[in-house]
Amino acid sequence: MKQLKKNILFFIMLVIYNTVLGQVNIKGVVNDTNGNALEGVNVVIKGTNFFDITDSQGVFEINDVVSGNYILSISHIGFKTSYKSIDVDKDNLSFLFVLEDDLLNLQTIVVTGTFEPRIQLESSTSVSSLELKVLRQVTPRGTADLLQNISGTFTDASAGEVFTKVYTRGISASAEDDFGWYYISLQEDGLPVSLVQHSYYSPDIFHRLDLSTKRVEAIRGGSASITALNAPGGIYNFISHDERSHFGGEIQLQSGLQGEGNPLYKVDAILGGPLGNNWFFNVGGHYRYDDGARNTDFVFSKGGQFKFNVLKKYSRGYLKFYGKILDDYTNRWTGVAATDWNDPKPAFDQDFNTTALMMPAFDVSIPDGRNLTQGATNSFNPSKGLYARDLAFGFDLLQDLGYNWSIRNNTKFSTKDAIWQTSISNAFVSLNDPTAYFISDTSGSTFPLGQVVFRNAISGLEIARLDNSGIFGGNPIEYIGNGTLPNDAIMGTSAWYKDNKANEWMNQLTLRKQWKNHDFNMGFSLGFSDTSLFTQGSFGYVTYEPNPKMLQVTLENPGEPIIYLSDENGVSNYGGLFYVNSQAQVSQVATFVNDRWKIADKFYLDLGLRLETIGHKGSKDRYAPIEEVGGVDGDVNTAFDNSLNVFTGEQDIFNFNYTYLSYSVGVNYKIEDEASLFARVSKGNKAPELNYYFNNFDNVPVNSKGEIQEINQLELGLKYNLKDFSFVSTAFWSQLKNISVSDFAFDENDSSIFYTPNQSNRSKTIGLEWESIYTPFQNMTFRFNGVVQNPKATSWTVYDAAGSVDISDDSIQDFSGNQLPFNPKLMFNLSTEYQKDQISAFFKWQFMGKREGNVANAFQLPAYSIFNLGTGYTFNKHLSVNLLITNLFNSEGLANFFGANSFGVSANGVTTDFIQANPDASFVVVPVLPRATVLKLNYVF
């Protein structure tokens, strides 16, 4: 026994001795083809946890490597991945690697839209990525503004950072202005920013772009059907910086002017490095102060965010903790008036580049109809716009289980608030229209005919006095005295207050098993959101002019008491236009399987299934106008608080589940090392969002569930990666079925706002996407991407309420076969970039083709072009400066169309017959944002 113990001890010592003797160091330098050192290159010994990241001199060092045969992987975004077989013996090894440019990142590993990391060239999906160079060529105008650089992606960022629209391949019908990401998953590090959407509550509210983003990956359709929660239209994943082997970071100072000289200031910073024992950290964020692209009397945006992650890497995987604190104020631009249906021009002295028809700043407390007996009020100040707060924390775990099994779990908790204090609608309301007076009190207790007085709400000075006694007899108003109102009108607008809250938890777990010819993944995704919504709308008396002013309005008939149609701030009809109070618990549970099967040496088959169940359980308050004589304050002479909508004590309950099966099958054939063909067929589904309940079933039982939309897609593509030229071209066919469409309408008889009954429709789009890059000279690069498509509303009807709640005069209009609105047949980006020594420059042309303004195809938004210019100078490896000019020639392109310039109408109300009957009528459009010039100063350390 003693001898056996001695032999075992001797054997252990021998193994340890030989292991120590067999440990060597691997050193090296990584350069680009111009001989410049590359920082941040990942050098990994495949199949082990040995790795390093090159420093600013391009140097890496991996220590204490045990003897054996290995493959060394050298990868960096923007460069082709290089592999080197190495034989580790007793001597230290030293290498020099030169990485070639990967012009379209086709040999870069992508993690979006797939269950396992995969080189883009070998993927059977249409994947695009934006690297740091492109991210730094944009001015701070929001998420959607950046994404228009991605091939085939339609974005409408005319409203600013929020209230944007993003979609692809004609999958757009339910992507409305107030929740324009309907089919898209906006993600940060692989998980959605937000689980739910409804009016004025989209994921862009909680997302800001800054230096903390390392790259963006995008999937258009295809595998999004099986890899994203309820988002078959695509995935846009913003990926944060990860480990840095050396302490360092960057500070960026931005200062600029927009529109007519409105200032913008922003500071960004990131910092990261090792903490020892394979721990790494990254922190970053920004703060900005922005007067806005158009003219208002308040700061348009201010605030920022802080993000962090802490990573532990170990022999069998990693554990990452991450989080975000967003605390931000911003707003969104509304439309402006135009005339001439064939060639739109600004109307009423407005300007497409500078006019913002928005209420000015003021403070008012409006009674809260939910808790009136407790004296509750809601503060309202339109200068605050949207206040967005997001506190998020999560962890991401990857564990190698041995025997080619691994598990990954990514989970995130968040609490969100989105409080809107802004104006909706800015329509022209003639003083000869009874709506201008009767909307002050929709209870019917006030009959505001006679002498109406308008005063400046700030100074109290009288602006105009008129007599409207003859308007019901067809006689125009008569001014009394010399004062008049601009354009003989007021603005039809609502003081729009929304309080949205959500507590969310989401999780994705993936179990992976690798065999010789199979890469099998299975798992489940979970998402739970406890959300609430309160919406209250009041009327605001505002002048209709380029710089609107609030109006105090009174009825002052001789010998009678003064009737106050508005309060001292100009707010009227307290809480009488809108009342929605709802809460909902949303559950999203999905299980999935996917197998990537290597059928032959260069041929892969990708098969995936996803079974998903969406649950909506909640309640919606019933409401009615206050019944007390004299309204909230009991004073019969204050008409502005007579119509407050209050909770009746009754609620309508909804509890519906939506279950569906989605699939996606793709193939990839590698023609040669630098080229591949791919094809994919997918069937996805889209369950209704909460808007279905919140916008419908007004004071009636929620007695039916919404329709599940079906998305069928086919795509066939070619990827080619040469030394100086790369391209990806994808032909696609997409079909969207069971589209539920409803518009809000205004009843002129009782001044109420309602939603029309849903219509179920269908659309189809066929097209070709492409992205390409060409480097004819060492210092010159050309980029060209875009889409040509034919979007059709194959079966489409619109409900016409004829301007009243009364259904006896309603009709259904059929527009089947028309062009799908807001989808251009052609859009592209063409740019050239120059880089030599310390000087860099770029020039970009963004073209947006003609789009139909509605499904009636009665009005077309003209094509437009935007040109962007940038130049930079690098003083040394630490300091650089860049000048960026967006919309260089101040294009007045029109991005959106809201319909005729009348309160409570929608774009679908404009038909060919309407235009023929109203050739000189004004209408509301939303122009693209004007020129912005930004100077960036970067310090890297």
TrEMBL record:
Domain TonB-dependent receptor-like beta-barrel: 339-888
Membrane topology label: Multi-pass membrane protein
Keywords from the UniProt entry: Cell outer membrane, Ion transport, Iron, Iron transport, Membrane, Receptor, Signal, TonB box, Transmembrane, Transmembrane beta strand, Transport
GO cellular component: cell outer membrane
Pfam families membership: CarbopepD_reg_2, Plug, TonB_dep_Rec_b-barrel
All residue ranges annotated as the TonB-dependent receptor plug domain in the record: 122-235
GO molecular function: siderophore uptake transmembrane transporter activity
Subcellular location: Cell outer membrane
Stated family: Belongs to the TonB-dependent receptor family.
Protein name, entry field: TonB-dependent receptor
